[in-house]
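Sequence only, no structure available. Ideas?
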Amino acid sequence: MSATAPAKTFRKKLEKNAYYVDVLNTPWEPTKLPGSERKVLFQDPVTGATTVLFRMAPGGVVPFHEHPEIEQTYVLEGSLEDDEGSCTAGNFVWRPGGSRHEAHCPNGALFIAFFQKPSRPITSEEE
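Reply:
I predicted one. Tokens follow.
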């Protein structure tokens, strides 16, 4: 299997193709977005499939972007909001490939996101 996660997140390979990630002891790493941190839990460098735990400060914004494939998000704390609605703690939202949006976290948020391929920023010329 070609899928990998950052070496620092693998603590022990328990059986063939089963990897356990010590999420609590994996350090948060800053993203390019102010007030946003992440823990990459899974990443396949071939397909781009990625699972990420995000933590965003109150007022955090994910600028306008496109999801080339399905994107799925489960909110653990706070809320993730866009022009179509609000996904609050304990709820789940998914977006089809080709969807575009800007997301806001008015009171902050902790959420896990599953990407089949990485999202890409949308420039003002593309809007």
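Residues 7-121 form a domain with the Jelly Rolls fold (CATH 2.60.120.10).
Hope that gets you unstuck.
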